[in-house]
Amino acid sequence: MLRDLTPTVKKLLIVNIVLFFVSAFIPKDLFALHFIQSPKFHYFQFITYMFLHGSLMHLFFNMFGLYMFGSILERLWGGPRFLFFFIFCGIGGGILHEVILYFHDFKAIRDALEGVISNPNSEYLKKFFEDFSGGAETNLVNNNVTGAIEVYKSKISADEYTMVGASGGVVGALMAYAYIFPNTEMFIFPIPIPLKAKYLVMVLAFYELYAGKTAIAGDNVAHFAHLGGMLFAVILLLIWRQRRDFFY
């Protein structure tokens, strides 16, 4: 199996595995992708988050997917083009993740905070802290506009909204494989029958959309990052398809 590794995929595997084991000795929080309005956010996190993983299983599945689909794409495109594609899809996953956080997850608290700032009276403040402070604030003397802003900063900096993992790039590679080889039959556990690659990515896309919209407590999978990787993969493939100096 190791003989099938292509050079760029091999280097990506080594970097991810090494960083996983040394992440205990580096400021991991600095390189994970935070919400764009968080004080912890930096633009370089759109790239660095792809090389960190939260658990050994998280690392294993992403690296297995990278090996399975990345090696095929690198043989087809060459190392530089595949690496660009992988990073592009990973950034795309991060972008869609941030967009959903801004316009969905944090919309209610952001609107409420804007209301408090515009009308800093006790009723607005009381409702804000009742809805978003988790019951921690009970004394309205301390529940002022500054306190509301601190609650907002605490929410947007919470670990549950921090993202790590190469999933955006890996799922983008899967999308590219299905785009180029749509009728290749594949097995996906636990389904006992083969599915053509084009149907597999359709099922995956609908699942990620459903899971992302109905996310339950304890689900720490960034479903919209996966969708972002798929979306940016399609965009780049369509751009490349229009170029006369590139074919597949």
UniProtKB/TrEMBL annotation:
Keyword Disulfide bond attributed: no
Peptidase S54 rhomboid domain location: 42-99, 155-240
Its EC number(s): 3.4.21.-
Keywords assigned by UniProt, alphabetized: Hydrolase, Membrane, Protease, Transmembrane, Transmembrane helix
Subcellular location: Membrane
GO terms, biological process: proteolysis
Lineage start: Bacteria, Pseudomonadati, Bacteroidota, Cytophagia, Cytophagales
Organism, as annotated: Aquirufa esocilacus
PANTHER family named in the record: PEPTIDASE S54 RHOMBOID DOMAIN-CONTAINING PROTEIN, RHOMBOID-RELATED PROTEIN
GO molecular function: peptidase activity
Spans through the membrane: 12-36, 48-70, 82-103, 161-180, 187-209, 221-240
Domain of life: Bacteria
Protein name stated in the entry: Rhomboid family intramembrane serine protease
SUPFAM superfamilies from the UniProt entry: Rhomboid-like
Pfam families hit by this protein: Rhomboid
Signal peptide location: none
Membrane topology term: Multi-pass membrane protein
